[in-house]
Specification:
single chain, seven-stranded mixed sheet, 3 domains, alpha+beta, Aspartate Aminotransferase, domain 2, disordered N terminus, Aspartate Aminotransferase, domain 1, ethanolamine-phosphate phospho-lyase activity
Length: about 650
């Protein structure tokens, strides 16, 4: 390498750390100027084309580098020869190679190949550093003309075991109650980017239901923020660190002023469990009011307030301190869209519970509700419902807990938090959040008032969480907030969500199987029914739809008490093109189903949900699918927001 001029190819950039390859068109020479070094030809000047490389998972113990596009011929780095081989090449060998040509490989932790000394010394940050397992890329961006396009590249994937072996080991070592999606033919996912997931064969799946990867799978800014902080420090919150206070401040700025005190934990279940402790300590009461079909987490204190779960326990009696109010579902619930004031009617149900409990000598500590009921079937409370419930509960000495674990952080588009859909005159006493907060990194938070926080402290018991609020988690949380703002993901959720909802409404006018469409932002549900008048749940048909979509590399889920609601809650980078693709496929599948069942001969009734056939309801976020003893329904859904379950050929699976 001695004698080579520093700065060769200074404009070529391969941004390993951001998982994006940037190509820079080079102006100037028709061909490089040739000089001679040590009796060999050497080209001093930049070539007129550009370099593109892609880093991808390779062998079990290493990472391979593949050539996307280049003017260098095989002598450039073939067989791992790298820059050493380039010295002897002639201009005639400088030609464009086909996408995917291998140009070398390195073990994880080794220096980047295909780099020159000046780059390794850090003059081009995007080309310095070591290989990591996170160095994956599928995008190519051209700078200068603003063009952004995708390279459809199917790289080799790093696998420790083949799929059969993975299934075998999972059955052997993982608890049998931990279900997988599509148990008859589960998917092995090895990487993901944006709104796409990839299996071990490089097949790409459009992810329509993963609300955990909120700003997109493997977002480079989020990955980089976590990696950089991990290199410096990760410790508990008993030490002072700016990331903690900066994130708390940024998070609070998205909430009403009275919600000003944060407790950082690691999961939505931890957050809701802590919220109950805050309510118990503040009020001195014990009883909790929850909604039918609600789901709030998997720990013992939350199973008892989650009818979605405890109804599965069969002979187990409901906890006497837990009271279940009707779900405020105006399509399938007790008070429907034809009721003159469903918000008051449903809130009066809560008032009646409070009065009956008081007569029995019991006192309510809290009312807890998902701001948009998720597993209950994409239910949005009617406007004014939360205000009226809060008034009743607070008058009885309780507090209002809003569970934003699945629906927060701008998913509804018009607001940052789903509870804000109820209006500016409503503020919960406690808000819990999780899933999207870390874009896949395990973190969550409880935010409450200063008064409730002071009461919690007065118990004399310190609250400490080993990993809650650690510097890495807070760095990741800050990056997520930055991406939401910088990429206008709330605006995208509103635009694409409205477009998706309108497409589904058009399908409702065509297909008698679609009974209702409801949505807010990128939180959309389509409820399938066999009879619109009777609203008979089309459970088997919903399962057929999600399985047919899976066969076409689209991941969707079905949930609700009858497992008949198609749930859309994709990463926030979901596009209108993605929405159109999914709805077109659903159209094809429903057409075939209706023809097979004879439903296509029925006349589709006029739209019943207002002028456009849309009800002002939003939908839920998938997060939990339980299994009923069959391998179909996925308990795994609950933790990763997943897809549906196994095929239900003729009847509903009991959960």
């Amino acid at each position: 390498m001695a004698g080579r001029r520093p700065g060769f190819l200074p404009t070529a950039r391969a941004q390993w750390l951001t998982q994006e390859v940037v190509r820079v068109p080079l102006a100037g020479h028709a061909r490089p100027e040739k000089t001679w070094r040590d009796g060999r030809p050497f080209y001093e000047r930049d070539p007129p084309q550009r370099l593109l490389f892609v880093v991808d998972g390779g062998r079990k113990d290493g990472t391979s580098v593949e050539l996307l596009e280049t003017v260098f011929g095989r002598s450039f780095g073939c067989c791992g020869r790298g820059w050493g081989a380039r010295r002897a090449c002639s201009w005639n060998s400088f030609r464009r190679e086909r996408i995917g040509d291998a140009v070398g490989s390195q073990k994880v932790g080794s220096n980047l190949p295909l780099t020159r000394g000046p780059w390794r010394r850090g003059k081009a940050k995007s080309l310095t550093g070591l290989f990591t397992d996170a160095l994956l890329t599928t995008q190519v961006r051209t700078v200068g003309d603003g063009e952004l396009r995708e390279k459809q590249h199917r790289p080799r994937m790093a696998e420790t075991y083949d799929k059969v072996k993975t299934i075998e080991l999972r059955r052997k070592h993982v608890g049998p109650s931990c279900k997988v999606f599509f148990s008859q033919d589960p998917i092995k996912i090895v990487r993901a980017k944006g709104q796409y997931m990839y299996d071990e064969n490089g097949e790409r799946y459009l992810d329509c239901i993963n609300n955990v990867a909120h700003v997109g799978h493997s977002h480079p800014d989020v990955v980089s923020a976590g990696a950089k902080q991990m290199e410096l420090l990760n410790t508990n919150s008993r030490f002072l660190h700016d990331n903690l206070v900066e994130y708390a401040q940024r998070l609070q700025a998205t909430l009403p002023d009275t919600l000003s005190v944060c407790y950082f934990v690691n999961s939505g279940s931890e957050a809701n469990d802590l919220a109950l402790r805050l309510a118990w300590q503040y009020t001195g009461h014990k009883d909790i009011i929850t909604l039918d079909h609600a789901y709030h987490g998997h720990v013992s204190s939350l199973i008892s307030i989650s009818p979605y779960k405890f109804h599965q326990l069969g002979t187990c009696e409901q906890d006497q301190s837990v009271h279940v109010a009707p779900s405020p579902d105006v399509y399938r619930g007790k008070y429907r869209e034809d009721h003159s004031d469903p918000a008051t009617a449903y809130s009066d149900e809560v008032r009646d519970i409070l009065q009956k409990s008081h007569k029995k000598g019991r006192k309510i500590a809290a009312f807890i509700a998902e701001s948009l009921q998720s597993c209950g079937g994409q239910v949005i409370p009617p406007p004014g419902y939360f205000q009226k419930v809060a008034e009743h509960v607070r008058r009885a000495g309780g507090v209002f807990i809003a569970d934003e674990v699945q629906v927060g952080f701008g998913r509804v588009g018009s607001h940052f938090w789903a509870f804000q859909l109820q209006g500016e005159d409503f503020t919960p006493d406690i808000v819990t959040m999780g899933k999207p907060i870390g874009n896949g990194h395990p973190m969550s938070c409880v935010v409450t008032t200063r008064e409730i926080a002071e009461a919690f402290m007065s118990s004399g018991m310190e609250y400490f969480n080993t990993f809650g609020g650690n510097p890495v988690s807070c760095a990741i949380g800050l990056a997520v907030l930055d991406v939401i703002e910088r990429e206008d993901l709330r605006g995208n959720a509103l635009r694409v969500g409205n477009y998706l909802t309108q497409l589904l409404i058009e399908q409702k006018e065509k297909h008698p199987l679609i009974g209702d469409v409801r949505g807010a932002g990128l939180f959309v549900g389509a409820e399938l029914v066999r009879d619109r008048d009777k609203r008979t749940p089309a459970t088997a048909e919903a399962q057929e739809v999600i399985y047919k979509l899976k066969d076409q590399r689209i991941l969707l889920s079905a949930d609700g008490p009858h497992r008949n609601v198609l749930k859309f809650k994709p990463p926030m980078c979901f596009s209108e093109e993605d929405a159109r693709l999914v709805v077109d496929k659903i159209d094809e599948i429903l057409t075939a189903l209706e023809k097979a069942t004879g439903l296509h001969t029925q006349t589709v009734p006029a739209a019943e949900n207002g002028p456009a056939g849309k009800r002002a309801m939003t939908c839920e976020e998938n997060g939990h699918h339980h299994s009923s003893g069959k391998d179909h329904l996925n308990e795994l859904c609950r933790q990763e927001e997943a897809q549906c379950c196994d095929r239900v050929p003729t009847k509903r699976l009991r959960t």
